[in-house]
Amino acid sequence: MKKQSKWLGDDSGQNRPELSEQDDRIAVSLAHLRAQEYSARGFSFLPRQPAQSILSGRNASRLRGRGLNFEELRHYRPGDDIRTMDWKVTNRTGKPHVRVYTEERERRIYLLVDQRISMFFGSQRAMKSAVAAELAALISWRILGEGDRIGALIFDDQECYHFTPRRSREGVIDILKRLESANAALTAGCQANPKQLNIAFDALRRHVTNDALVIYIGDGFGWDKASDEMVKLLSLHNDVIAMNLFDPAERDLPPLKELVVSDGEMQIVVSGTHEELQTRFEQSYLKHVEHMREALQRFGLPLIEINTVDKPLQQLQRALGAQP
Q: Residue limits of the DUF58 domain (predicted)?
């Protein structure tokens, strides 16, 4: 039985990807997500970024790293960094004292992965939902390889599924299993819920404390002023990176004489050569993206554009400086 999909194209069926339950371009399998472990190279979310990385430079996010834990208070010794001097204790005792810190062994990274029906769309290589799952797998395996804890909040149009950050293969596999299930559950008949994005943001805020890295992976469907405020609050004590997934057909209406457009319940045939329709189509997409981009820029947060045409790994490597 072939899986139904939300696809925008000519009614002839030409250039459509072949749809099947086993096609990882439509609905990713756990085997495909596990296989990403062996190719998750060439990018990093560590504080030191190459010059070409979108995370470097004055306007990019300053990744906080793993943070510091207070270890002890002791007498000053020659060679100690004067910046660690505890002046209150020094003044009270009359002898110089320094505060000693140790670096945390791992950092907490949260993935916020969108698996709503708005993500079940693709016109060429893959569905946005499948690309999001593959991105999440690549990032999870990379984070684990760097010795940090990886957690996630995966949401569809009805539920949010939270995974506490863990530094283990089992923790990653649990996340990947949910992504496989979320992909498999998407069908053309699902009902869209634009409010679910803010519900997911709010749920994540209850789990994230301080000095974590939050990576949003989705298409921003339903992003509004309330989303702006939630992202702002998240970014006050954490690093936030947004990965906006898009399909070229969402921005540029294919110039075909007959296009079948569906919202999951009804279908209509329109002409892609109609100039006014093309203009309105493009403006609608740009308005949505610009709102999200402007909000992130106000808070000094990076936005990484990810399309459904190029391979996710290559896009990560380009955006983050192609580290070896």
A: 72-288
Task: Name the CATH superfamily, with its identifier, for domain 30-62+106-319.
Answer: von Willebrand factor, type A domain (3.40.50.410)
Q: Cα-atom radius of gyration of the chain, to the nearest Å? A: 23
C-alpha–C-alpha distance, residues 67 and 212, integer Å: 9
Residue 142, pLDDT score: 95
As a whole number of angstroms, the distance between CA 176 and CA 154 comes to 10
For the CA atoms of 215, 216, 218, 222, what is the dihedral angle to 10 degrees?
A: -170
Q: How confident is the model at residue 276 (pLDDT cuts 50, 70, 90)?
A: low
Write the secondary structure of the chain as one string of H (helix), E (strand) and C (coil): CCCCCECCECCCCCCCCCCCCCCCCCCCCHHHHHHHHHCCCCCCCCCCCCCCCCCCCCCCCCCCCCCEEEEEEEECCCCCCHHHECHHHHHHHCCCEEEEEEECCCCEEEEEEECCHHHCECCCCCCHHHHHHHHHHHHHHHHHHCCCEEEEEEECCCCEEEEEEECCHHHHHHHHHHHHHHHHHCCCCCCCCCCHHHHHHHHHHHHCCCCCEEEEEECCCCCCHHHHHHHHHHHHHCEEEEEEEECHHHHCCCCCCCEEEECCCCEEEECCCCHHHHHHHHHHHHHHHHHHHHHHHHCCCCEEEEECCCCHHHHHHHHCCCCC
Beta bridge pairs of residue 297: none
- Residue 4 has a pLDDT of 45
Task: Name the residue ranges covered by the structural domains of the chain.
Answer: 30-62+106-319, 68-103
pLDDT at 301 over 50: yes
d(CA 265, CA 31): 32
Between CA 123 and CA 30 the distance in angstroms is: 23
Percentage of the chain beyond pLDDT 70 is 75
